[in-house]
Every structure is written in structure tokens, then in C-alpha cells.
Amino acid sequence: QVQLVESGGGLVQAGGSLRLSCTASGISFYLYRMEWYRQAPGNQRDLVAGITSGESTRYADSVKGRFTISRDNAKSTVYLEMNSLKPEDTAVYSCAAVRDSPWNRQYWGQGTQVTVSS
Q: Measured in whole angstroms, how far is the alpha carbon of residue 96 from the centre of its chain?
């Protein structure tokens, strides 16, 4: 059974920092591209950051310079370090594991709440 479990969310003040973790089981973790998404009430789910098997990274323009995605294949874990947090970062953050070959597949975690107060 494939399972992704996020942790590390919570309540922080604007300007603060938070580190999210997502640990996967039931997959060959090193073969998957890992991604973080977020969704605020009334908004669509947006891609925040991604990291490939080769550790190439990409970020949404809104978080560039503030967030850092990384992975530890030995721990089957992907991280999202969030710095200089803003109230508009408030959302449920979800982890996804994606593989494009030999066929497309994607698995999702349940999400963790991040709330940034002003």
C-alpha cells in the first residue's frame, strides 16, 4: 500500500519559519519526482515546489527565494523549508509523488495545515 504522510505544519507569525516533511512508503522513492502543493479555502491547488530524482528543483514565483525543497532518499522523505512566511502562505500543504515512466502515476498525502498570523 502506498502512503505519503506529511508533518511539520502549525501556527507561526509572519516572518517566521517552518519545515514540512513528507515520508513515503510502498514505492521505490528514489525513482519518483516529489512535489509540494498548497490550497487555501476558496482557491485552487497550486504547485509550490518540485524536486526530481536528480535533485533538480523548481518553485512557484510566489515562493522563490523563501522556500527550499530537498529530499533524503535514504529516509524516503522530502522536505519543504519555509522562511519569511507571509499570511498569504496560509494553506493546507500536500505532498505528491510522481513518476512518468513506464507509465504516468501520482500519489498524494493527506496534507498538513500551515497558518501564518499577522
A: 7
* Residue 95 · residue 34 · CB < 8 Å: yes
The partner residues of 114 in beta bridges, in order of sequence, read 10, 91
Nearest to 38 by CA among 76, 78, 72, 88: 88
Cell numbers of 68, please? Answer: 527550499
- Could you list the beta-strand ranges (E) of the chain: 3-7, 10-13, 18-25, 33-39, 46-51, 57-59, 67-72, 77-82, 91-99, 105-108, 112-117
User: CA-to-CA distance for 60 and 30, rounded, in angstroms?
Assistant: 23
Answer for the pair 83, 17: CB distance below 8 angstroms, yes or no: yes
The pLDDT tens digits for 33-46 are: 999 999 999 999 99
User: pLDDT by residue (tens digit) across 38-89?
Assistant: 999 999 999 999 999 999 999 999 999 999 999 999 999 999 999 999 999 9
